[in-house]
Structure formats: C-alpha cells, structure tokens
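Exercise 3.2. Students should predict the tertiary structure of the chain below and write it as structure tokens, then compare their answer with the key that follows.

Predict this chain's 3D structure.
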Amino acid sequence: MPNIWSPHVTVAAVAEREGRFLLVEERSGGRFVLNQPAGHWERGESLIDAVQRETFEETAWRFSPEALIGIYRWIHPQSDTTYLRFAFCGTVFDHDPDIPLDQEIERAFWMSAAQIRGAHERLRSPQVLAVIDDYLEGNRYPLQCIRDLNRPANLSQPVKCAD
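Answer key:
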C-alpha cells in the first residue's frame, strides 16, 4: 500500500492600500501572531471562493481576487505538517465593522511592509513575508491558470493588484 500524504491546503489574501497591507492578529499556539487573512480550503469550494470567504470571516472586508501571487510550501518545524498556500492579491471593499470576526481573530488592521518586516518574530509563518515580498516584486499570475473543471471558466478577470 502506498504511503498517502496530504498537505494542509490554505489560501491567503493580499490587499494593499496606500502602502499598507491588510493583516490579522490571531491566536495560535498560545500566542498572538500576525498573518494575512488566510485559512484552510474547504471541501466543495473553489480556491477563489475560499479566499473570499476567509477574508470576510477574518476581517469583515469583501475581497475581490485579481491575480495569483504564488503557491508556497512550508513544513512546520515542530509539527512536521506541510502547508501549501495559494496567495492571491486583489482589492477589498464593503467593510462591515459590526460583523463579528472568527473567534481566533483578535483584530484586523493595516501595516506597511517595513512594519511587517520589523515584526518578523510575530509572523505566523515565513509564508507571510514571502508572499508580501513576492507581491512587491510584482509576481502576478492570471486567475485563469487555476482551472476548476466543475465550474465554468471566467476569462474576464484582470491581472492588476493595486488601488
């Protein structure tokens, strides 16, 4: 019998406004850490649905993904769990501050790239800064590179990620 292995597949949203990035402060491993709005891909969702849902649940902002920044593999050094993160950039809109956030989320807020780098010891994983760096480098892949064979293709998505 083959050794079956399954990574934890996650999605993350990068939204930038005036040089600042939308982040969340969340409880993980008994401490408060910083992360992009991110979470696990759930059964039956497309990756786009997942990143929109996670962003709304964690920040109360609606997220419109415009491009894929990259796909990131990271193995947690203590648990040996492999995470596969699909990071998207896009814009946020329609914020509802009265909606309660996921219970693990302490708050959603905006930070500059320099502030994020300065808080590197508080980042949930190295994926957070890697995604920001790749975004700032201009890494963009069209959403059309993600083919969901159970849904019709939407070829009208833009490939720009700036307000």
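Discussion points: Residues 155-159 have pLDDT under 50 and may be disordered. The first strand starts at residue 8 and ends at 17.
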